[in-house]
TrEMBL record:
InterPro entries: DUF1885, Rbstp2229-like_sf. Gene3D superfamilies: Rbstp2229 like protein (3.30.310.120), Rbstp2229 protein (1.20.5.850). It comes from the Bacteria. This is DUF1885 domain-containing protein. Pfam families: DUF1885.
């Protein structure tokens, strides 16, 4: 059965919406900074740190894409953006954006570890509310 993690963009977040193109840019930036770590230690770390490439389906979906790896311990991670309707404490409704990270049935434990790392990176950069695969919640935004 597939597993999901969510990064919800709440009131205290850096931004209130996110697009698929922005998500792809964050992915590229993450790969870049992990490759810099390899340069500092004089080791080709970029191929191991986050061994994924963006793959898009033929249907050109506007709300998701997947990351595929050619390494033997890694397979797939699916990333998407969406919105949900939430009810606030004062009974008013609000539209809230979120990023969904899905591990399909074919994913490995290596994929789960890399997905957790990337989720934490994104949540920290966006100051979001991270709902991990195990159901726990991490708050990266200033709480009152």
């Amino acid at each position: 059965m597939s597993e999901n993690a969510y990064i919800k963009l709440v009131e205290g977040s850096e931004q209130q919406t996110v697009t698929l193109d922005e998500l792809k840019e964050w992915f590229s930036y993450y790969k870049y900074i992990t490759s810099k770590t390899g340069q500092q230690v004089e080791w080709n770390y970029s191929s191991k740190a986050f061994p994924y490439e963006i793959k898009e389906t033929t249907e050109q979906s506007q709300d998701w894409f997947y990351l595929a790896s050619g390494e033997d311990r890694y397979k797939h991670i699916i990333l998407g953006v969406s919105k949900e309707k939430i009810i606030l404490d004062d009974e008013t409704e609000k539209i809230q954006s979120y990023i969904q990270i899905t591990l399909p049935d074919s994913s490995t434990y290596g994929d789960k570890g890399k997905a957790n790392e990337f989720c934490k990176f994104l949540a920290k950069k966006l100051k979001g509310e991270l709902h991990l695969f195990n159901g726990r919640v991490m708050y990266y935004y200033p709480r009152r």
